């Protein structure tokens, strides 16, 4: 469990880095030298999150789709019963983000740019923001909700020590995007006023 959690922490850090470089470079042009590192960070995000997903699938869900979606088999009823209401949705969000990440990583090469065309490629890679928000919801569920006591799990877990780190990643990414957008609009209005 520690290994797949640490891979998940690494994955969100890599995706955050890939997401925040663009807005920071727009706000402070001196940072534009970091922009080429977005591609590498995104590829590493996809690889690390794929390993994270595989370890969860193999080690926890044990290749059981129902288990991954928060259902457990009840021998008394002979049915799969929902054990963790938000667990399945959080895992689906993670799987969707992984799918986006792998698609983006597969097209993060010069040949893909040439094949798709720069405009289509750039449009496709804006989906990195969608992946980031999906990952954020996935992570915040596990950091703040999943390990709290419930009727099916009375175990008291220590609060996740990184939960505010995750929240800070989300807030700084949103703040950087909003600031870069505001600065771009302000520059456009300033140029239009001249």
Explain what this protein looks like in three dimensions:
- The termini are far apart.
- It is built from 8 helices and 2 strands; from the N terminus they run αααββααααα.
- The protein has helices at residues 2-27, 37-60, 65-68, 85-106, 110-116, 118-125, 127-146, 163-193, and strands at 71-74, 79-82.
- α1 runs parallel beside α8, α4 packs antiparallel against α7 (127-146) and α7 (127-146) runs antiparallel to α8.
- A two-stranded antiparallel sheet has the order 1-2.
Sheet with the most strands? 2 strands, antiparallel
Shape assignment: elongated
Mean pLDDT: 92
Radius of gyration: 20 Å
Helix content: over 70%
- The H-and-E topology, N to C, reads as HHHEEHHHHH
Total E-strand runs? 2
Poorly predicted runs: none
Number of helices: 8
Percent strand: under 5%
Q: Output the structural class.
A: mainly alpha
The N- to C-terminal Cα distance equals 59 Å
Largest sheet strand order: 1-2
Break the fold down into its secondary structure elements and pairings.
Elements lengths: L1 H26 L9 H24 L4 H4 L2 E4 L4 E4 L2 H22 L3 H7 L1 H8 L1 H20 L16 H31 L1
Antiparallel strand pairs: 1-2
Question: What characteristics describe this protein?
Answer:
8 helices, mainly alpha, 194 residues, 2 strands
Brief description of this entry?
This protein is mainly α and 194 residues long. It has eight helices and two strands.
């Amino acid at each position: 469990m520690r290994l797949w959690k640490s891979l998940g922490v690494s994955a969100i850090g890599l995706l955050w880095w890939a997401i925040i470089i663009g807005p920071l470079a727009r706000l402070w042009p001196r940072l534009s030298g970091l922009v080429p590192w977005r591609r590498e960070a995104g590829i590493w995000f996809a690889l690390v999150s794929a390993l994270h997903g595989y370890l969860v699938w193999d080690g926890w869900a044990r290749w059981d789709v129902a288990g991954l979606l928060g259902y457990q088999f009840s021998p008394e009823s002979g049915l799969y019963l929902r054990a963790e209401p938000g667990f399945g949705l959080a895992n689906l969000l993670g799987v969707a983000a992984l799918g986006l990440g792998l698609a983006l990583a597969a097209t993060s090469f010069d040949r893909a740019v040439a094949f798709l065309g720069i405009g289509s490629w750039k449009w496709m890679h804006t989906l990195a923001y969608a992946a980031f928000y999906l990952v954020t919801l996935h992570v915040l569920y596990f950091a703040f909700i999943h390990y709290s006591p419930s009727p099916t799990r009375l175990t008291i877990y220590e609060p996740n020590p990184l939960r505010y780190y995750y929240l800070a990643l989300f807030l700084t990414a949103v703040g950087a995007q909003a600031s870069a957008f505001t600065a771009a609009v302000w520059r456009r209005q300033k140029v239009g006023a001249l």
